[in-house]
Amino acid sequence: MKRKHMNDEPQQPRPPEQPAGSEPGALIEPPEEAVVRLEGELADMKDKYLRLAAEYDNFKKRSVKERTDLWQRAQADLVQRLVDALDDLARFAHVDPAQTDAKTIHDGVDMVERKVWKALETAGVTRVDQVGVPFDPHVHEAVTTRPADHPAKDHTVGAVLQPGYRMGDALIRPARVIVSQWQGDEGRGSGDGK
Fold it and tell me: How far apart (Å, rounded) are the C-alpha atoms in residues 59 and 50?
């Protein structure tokens, strides 16, 4: 009797080797088909990207147009509030001074100023013209200084030369002011005649 060696076992056909990570029984895609499939996926991705980019560009243009329209409507609203006062002012500009007394002209100008301020206040405009408040470089422009008569008035607004204006939180124009500065007792007489 013959001894069996390991090499003598009947050979069974081996399955074809599969790429790493593939499941047994999975079909292998031929390279030409893989290229076609990937090119199709790439074309779909490019199309989605281009559509998204076009949509974003349209959104930006629409937003700019909406902001511009809103700004124009706001300006038109403010101008509409001011035209009545401008019409009144035009009437006073054409008054014959020989036939009108100064009090009538003064009262008319005062009325126009009140109308203008009513329109501006409705739009959110306020005046920055308080005296005695602490100097704030964010709303005041210091033109000059003057001595303060008390230490508590150091670095406060002593006088307003030209009022400033705000619209909501936005500063339209800073107030031009004189700032009071306490200089101590130096430069002041001590009161005892020395």
Answer: 14
Q: Which of 186, 171, 55, 175 is nearest to 124 (CA)?
A: 171
Residue 184's φ and ψ, nearest 5 degrees, are 75, -165
| pTM of this prediction exceeds 0.85 | no
Q: Answer yes or no: is 22 within a domain.
A: no
Euclidean distance between CA atoms 109 and 90, whole angstroms:
11
pLDDT computed for residue 193 by the predictor: 43
Strand order in the sheet with 170-173: 125-128, 164-167, 170-173
Average pLDDT estimate for 68-96: 88
Question: Domain limits at 103?
Answer: 29-123
Tokens 């076609």 label which residue? 36
- Helix/strand/coil percentages in the chain, nearest 5: 45, 20, 35
Which among 75, 95, 123 is the end of a domain?
A: 123
